[in-house]
């Protein structure tokens, strides 16, 4: 799973002494989850109600792994694949949900025109907004493999797919049919669905399934998540640039699934920065903690967020949604600290939800940036000097204040 899991540390610890510093052993936790669902999935034919859910891999592109996710459960299973509704769930809950979803995987060219009946069935499943009774026949009994990923929610047991059938008609909204058949480019299709109020992960599923856009292609789930969040974020950024500035410095905070999220909104023209650190003992926190970051001004980020990757687009979208709702513009600084309590990667959705919850938890408003920074320090463990060294926005603020000092003989920035 990770380098530390291959070391002598695990052999000495055996999950009992917690020598890695985590509050629970990730290996044993996943083993317990796997054991709890073993009897339910110990067969080649799986019948149940898909949430609905599909997965598209990225390895081997343009020939990728794709398949439906079907649990051995009938009825309302939508909670098994509703990331934006998991705000009150634990990491153990998420691992259990995902372990129930059995994936029947097959290889497919990303060009959907070269697809056959099975892919057409998968696409129909993806377009449904309600669970769909489905049946998969597998070559072997499914195996649960745990791979650490910071992007998509963890994938459950899987095996090669021999056959897949929808045993009832999927519930496909008329608006989805309209967008899919209207030959819209992917970006306007995404925004139309978003503005109509469709769940973000429903849109991601449609993009992955290759039903959006003019030249329709399968899109790996991981790529789809970032693409949809980036597309919506860009549109919202352009919109809020026309709004008035907020009046004060605002500080927000929330802790979610072992992640700390602190947000500062500044009464200045739009810019966004995410500062992130994996604390010692956290999932990917080997060695001394180091602050990583990505940023943008009103023109948007140049290229891809190389350091914070998918977390950047998820965090940005949550703050932009909050500003759009208020019809206000601000300069945005987001701090993310990952603690040892985040013992298993559950997907970038938790960043989306964590920052969203933070934006609903205003701590205080301040007259100066110094006061806001001093308030944020109370919530964070990493020495604040490390954030100051890396932050592009804070460097810009310091330079702006120095210019102001030279012109007006006073300063407020420390």
TrEMBL record:
Keywords: DNA damage, DNA repair. Transmembrane segments: none annotated. One of its GO terms (biological process) is DNA repair. Residues 296-405 form the Archaeal Nre C-terminal domain. Residues 19-284 form the Archaeal Nre N-terminal domain. Involved in DNA damage repair. Belongs to the Nre family. This is DNA repair protein.
């Amino acid at each position: 799973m990770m380098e530390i899991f291959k070391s002598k540390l695990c052999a000495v610890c055996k999950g009992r002494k917690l020598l890695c510093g985590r509050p629970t052993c990730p290996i044993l936790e996943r083993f317990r989850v796997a054991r709890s669902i073993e009897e339910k999935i110990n067969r080649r034919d799986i019948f149940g109600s898909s949430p609905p859910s599909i997965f598209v891999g990225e390895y081997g592109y343009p020939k990728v792994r794709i398949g439906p996710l079907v649990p051995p459960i009938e009825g309302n299973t939508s909670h098994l694949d509703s990331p934006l509704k998991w705000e009150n769930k634990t990491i153990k809950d998420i691992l259990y949900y995902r372990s129930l979803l059995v994936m029947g995987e097959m290889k497919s060219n990303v060009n959907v025109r070269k697809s056959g009946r099975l892919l057409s069935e998968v696409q129909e499943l993806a377009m449904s907004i309600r669970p769909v009774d489905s049946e998969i026949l597998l070559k072997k009994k499914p195996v649960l493999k745990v791979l650490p990923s910071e992007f998509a929610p963890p994938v459950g047991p899987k095996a090669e797919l021999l056959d897949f059938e929808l045993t009832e008609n999927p519930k496909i909204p008329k608006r989805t049919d309209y967008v899919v058949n209207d030959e819209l480019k992917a970006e306007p299709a995404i925004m139309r669905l978003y503005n109509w109020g469709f769940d973000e992960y429903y849109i991601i599923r449609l993009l992955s399934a290759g039903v959006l856009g003019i030249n329709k292609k399968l899109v790996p789930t991981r790529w789809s998540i970032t693409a949809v969040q980036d597309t919506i974020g860009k549109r919202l950024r352009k919109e809020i640039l026309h709004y008035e500035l907020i009046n004060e410095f605002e500080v927000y905070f929330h802790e979610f699934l072992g992640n700390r999220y602190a947000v500062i909104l500044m009464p200045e023209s739009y810019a966004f920065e995410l500062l992130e650190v994996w604390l010692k003992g956290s999932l990917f926190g080997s060695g001394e903690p180091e602050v990583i970051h990505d940023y943008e001004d009103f023109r948007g980020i140049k290229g891809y967020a190389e350091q914070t990757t998918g977390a950047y687009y998820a965090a940005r979208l949550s703050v932009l949604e909050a500003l759009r709702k208020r019809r206000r513009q601000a300069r945005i600084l987001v701090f993310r600290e990952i603690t040892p309590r985040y013992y298993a990667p559950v997907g970038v959705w938790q960043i989306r939800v964590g920052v969203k919850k933070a934006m609903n938890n205003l701590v205080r408003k301040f007259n100066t940036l110094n006061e806001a920074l001093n308030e944020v320090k109370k919530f964070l463990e990493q020495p604040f000097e490390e954030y100051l060294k890396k932050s592009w926005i804070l460097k810009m603020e310091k330079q702006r204040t120095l210019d102001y000092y030279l012109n007006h003989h006073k300063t407020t920035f420390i």
